[in-house]
Design goal:
The protein contains six helices and eleven strands. It is α/β, with parallel strands linked by helices. It binds 5-O-phosphono-beta-D-ribofuranosylamine. The site of 5-O-phosphono-beta-D-ribofuranosylamine (GRF) has 14 residues, from helix 1 and strand 5. This is Phosphoribosylglycinamide formyltransferase.
């Protein structure tokens, strides 16, 4: 059997996406293993999820470092010590330095709760409602130096209903996140997904600018 893809997951909070990844890899169908879960917050519930699954956890408190560069250098050291082939940002609420992003170019994925390039940044569900959008969703993308701006891998699209609230949208988008993030990690682990010069490629073919689209 080929060597599994070593995945390190970075979190700051509840870790429901981490859970979805652990569940997906736990089926034995994905040639990957999560070697460690790192958090910048000791109280992140996702750390408990990892412990329960017998996965190593590491806490690096950003407040203990003098500036972003120093924190990111410590992060790189911790990640590389665990031999990461892929780094998965799963609700990691820190902006990463250009040096960090370059270090992991082509092996750094993020999930964002909007149909990028729309609604980068925070409070996406509220902003979708304010803008009167008919559709919303979530996106998995390779991370580049532009915040929430890297090449898209896959998007799940859901309709916005007339009675939706930020909370109801968040809930339905989360369900989709738990489907598309494990899918993207599976593609990467299987060697099917890579970052080419012109963007994300799946099975050697360039993906559309919006990534693979899954509509509901
Ligand atoms: C998700 O909404 C994700 O899109 C965003 O952070 C949130 C993390 O949620 N990047 P969880 O900790 O995985 O539940």
């Amino acid at each position: 059997m080929a060597t599994p893809c070593n995945v390190v997951v970075l979190i700051s909070g509840g870790g429901s996406n981490l859970q979805a990844l652990m569940d997906s890899i736990g089926t034995g169908d994905v040639p990957a293993r999560i070697t460690a879960v790192l958090s910048n917050r000791a109280d992140a519930y996702g750390l408990r999820r990892a412990e329960q699954a017998g996965i190593e956890t590491v806490v690096l408190d950003h407040k203990a470092y003098e500036g972003r560069e120093a924190f990111d250098a410590a992060l790189i050291q911790a990640i590389d010590a665990r031999g990461a082939d892929l780094v998965v940002l799963a609700g990691f609420m820190r902006i990463l330095s250009a040096g960090f992003v370059r270090h992991y170019e082509g092996r750094l994925l993020n999930i964002h709760p909007s149909l990028l390039p729309k609604h980068k940044g925070l409070h996406t569900h509220q902003r979708v409602l304010e803008a009167g959008e008919a559709e919303h969703g979530c996106s998995v993308h390779f991370v580049t130096e532009e915040l929430d701006g890297g090449p898209l891998v896959v998007q799940a699209v859901i309709p916005v209903r007339p009675d939706d609230t930020p909370e109801s949208l968040a809930q339905r988008v989360h369900v989709q996140e738990h489907l598309i993030y494990p899918l993207a990690v599976r593609w990467f682990a299987e060697g099917r997904l890579r970052l080419g010069v012109a963007g994300a490629e799946l099975d050697g073919e360039p993906l559309p600018a919006s990534g693979r689209s899954i509509r509901h």
